[in-house]
Amino acid sequence: MRRNARVAKEGSKILFPLGVIEEHGPHLPLGSDIFWSKKICELVRDELKKQGQEALIAPGYYWGINHCTGAFPGSFSLKPETMKQVLFEIFENLKAFGFSEVYCFNYHGDAHHVNTIVEAIQRANAELGMRVKLVLEAMDLQLYQWKGTEEFLLVSEPPYPLEWFEDGAMEDGLLDIHGGAYETAVMNDFHPEYVDLELAKTLESSSLSMTDLQKWLIGGEETKALVPQGYAGNPAGYAAVAKHVKEMIALQVTDIAGRIVAHI
Ligand SMILES: [Zn+2]
Q1: How far is the centre of ligand 1, averaged over its atoms, from the C-alpha of 94 (Å)?
Q2: SS3 of 32, please?
Q3: Do 99 and 109 contact (CB within 8 A), yes or no?
Q4: pTM for the complete prediction?
Q5: What's the mean pLDDT in 42-62?
Q6: Ligand 1 center to 179 CA (angstroms)
Q7: Across 23-27, 153-157, 158-162, 193-197, least confident range
Q8: Residue 167: its pLDDT value, please?
Q9: What per-residue confidence (pLDDT) applies to 12?
Q10: pLDDT attached to residue 251
Q11: C-alpha separations of 2 from 6, 7, 50, 156, 197 in Å
């Protein structure tokens, strides 16, 4: 506590992990998204420290919005107004502790969830005079129709080698977006104790076509009928992604930490 008070006085940064509790298929835990955010926050904090900057990690917030997978048991979902109010009050607490600069890390792409985070951020910045930002990769900007210059964003653009996208890790033209090869590989790197890899190897692909994606986005029973096992991707294909996971995460962490330092 004493250390926190000292760090707050020095105007240090807060790294805030956000996520949801959401079903991720039979092979991954409900907490996959918040485990992911928390781990990235730890790695970014360590990288900032190497660059002489101190950051603290706030307790994780994981009562988010699950629109797409909301019909599955285990996908807890709050009303947007509830989530927005709770997040705003968390920002109020941080401000009262002496922290104004907050970076939000979120790895749950549901637009209802992400837009609610952004509304809470905008309110905190406007009403509390804080500098809260959502960390987002440039390739995800189009999902939310943002330009990248919005004051509530810290846009990261890690220099991924192009050949990663060409080596067959993903099935041709299909989307691996939830509990598939990508998420299984990352979770297995971060928290192998929570991943049933033997089961993942036996699961059939349910990667989505662009037409399927529209059904996925409808949510509820429509999504459940589309992917009855609860994952949208190819868990058994994790090995091809796993080859690059450590380097990919290292590129992300270095890029984000560099931009946080440069932002001062
Ligand atoms: Zn997830």
Answers
A1: 27
A2: helix
A3: no
A4: 0.94
A5: 96
A6: 6
A7: 158-162
A8: 57
A9: 86
A10: 97
A11: 6, 9, 23, 33, 42
Q: How many whole angstroms from 69 Cα to the centroid of ligand 1?
A: 11
**17 beta partners:** 105
CA 72–ligand 1 middle distance (angstroms): 14
CB contact set of 177 (below 8 Å; sequence gap of 6+)? 109, 208, 213, 216, 232, 233
Confidence of residue 162 (pLDDT cuts 50, 70, 90): confident
In the reported structure, the alpha carbon of residue 134 is separated from the centroid of ligand 1 by a whole-number distance in angstroms of 17
**Ligand 1 centre from 261 Cα, in Å?**
28
- Predicted confidence at residue 164, as pLDDT, reads 78
Q: Which fold has domain 2-263?
A: Rossmann fold (3.40.50)
Cα–Cα distance for residue pair 154/80, rounded to 1 Å: 23
Q: Are the CB atoms for 67 and 113 separated by under 8 Å? A: yes
The span from the CA of 83 to the CA of 189, in Å, is 30
Q: Examine the pLDDT at 170 and tell me if it is beyond 90.
A: no
pLDDT at 4 over 80: no
Query: 176: CA distance to ligand 1 center in Å?
Result: 11
Q: How many CA atoms lie within 13 A of 76 on its CB side?
A: 13
The Cα 253–Cα 249 span in angstroms is 6
Please give the residue that has the higher pLDDT: either 4 or 108. 108
Residues surrounding ion ligand 1 at CB below 5 Å: 32-33
Give ∠ CA 33-63-18 in degrees, rounded to 5: 45
Largest alpha-carbon pair distance within the chain?
55
